């Protein structure tokens, strides 16, 4: 697996813009740190983190066409918010272009942007690492979210989804409802923990 990761790094370095490549490396290392904390497979976590944005460099129109060409079914929400599609097409590329057979890794790439209810440990790790990696600096809640990530992963995901939904609403952007479903799911876990339910 290590050799595969080194080869993939070289490939992505050529394909992705420098900042996106840097982000991908950073996410892959944070994935391994979270994997250490939560006892997940280190190499699968590194691999999923490295590949999570392998389709991010395609523009909205282009990625819709690429999905249609590969007969990847698209939801109405995804057509209205094509920014989320790099996760779905990235999962397809991971499987069909990069030869990834592991469905856990493929699903972690698939759900890294919107999240979904009841995510697997690997899905949670990539979703969280993408938000907290050290090169990120936009979200105001980052210092708190970063520390919660290493204390309680479900609670951290609740904060990330809450922040993302508030941000999208503030900006007036269309929201893929998968994130709303994920938020409701993790909000319930949060409320049970706080004794509010
Ligand atoms: N449910 C959603 N609906 C619409 N846009 C979303 C949704 N979830 C996340 N986004 C937006 O998609 C963009 C890409 O997110 P993400 O994949 O997390 O980042 P990156 O690809 O840069 O690692 C962000 O601007 C985020 O706000």
From TrEMBL:
Residues 20-135 form the HD domain. CDD domains: HDc (cd00077). Keywords: Hydrolase, Iron, Metal-binding, Nucleotide-binding. Transmembrane segments: none annotated. Its EC number is 3.6.1.41. SMART domains: HDc. InterPro entries: Diverse_Catalytic_Enzymes, HD/PDEase_dom, HD_domain, HDIG_dom, YqeK. It catalyses: P(1),P(4)-bis(5'-adenosyl) tetraphosphate + H2O = 2 ADP + 2 H(+). One of its GO terms (molecular function) is metal ion binding. This is bis(5'-nucleosyl)-tetraphosphatase (symmetrical). It comes from Lacrimispora algidixylanolytica.
């Amino acid at each position: 697996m290590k050799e595969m990761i080194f080869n993939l790094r070289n490939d992505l370095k050529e394909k992705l813009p420098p900042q996106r490549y840097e982000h991908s490396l950073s996410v892959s290392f944070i994935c391994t740190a979270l994997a250490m904390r939560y006892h997940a497979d280190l190499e699968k976590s590194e691999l999923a983190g490295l590949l999570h944005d392998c389709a991010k460099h395609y523009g909205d129109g282009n990625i819709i066409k690429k999905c249609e060409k590969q007969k990847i079914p698209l939801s109405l929400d995804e057509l209205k918010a094509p920014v989320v599609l790099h996760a779905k097409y990235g999962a397809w590329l991971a499987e069909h272009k990069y030869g990834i057979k592991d469905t856990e890794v493929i699903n972690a790439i698939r759900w890294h942007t919107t999240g979904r209810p009841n995510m697997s440990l690997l899905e949670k790790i990539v979703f969280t690492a993408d938000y907290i990696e050290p090169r990120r600096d936009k979200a105001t809640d980052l210092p708190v979210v970063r520390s919660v990530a290493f204390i309680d992963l479900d609670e951290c995901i609740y904060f990330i989804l809450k922040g993302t939904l508030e941000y999208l609403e503030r900006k007036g952007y269309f929201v893929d409802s998968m994130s709303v479903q994920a938020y409701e799911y993790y909000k319930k876990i949060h409320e049970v923990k706080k004794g509010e339910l």
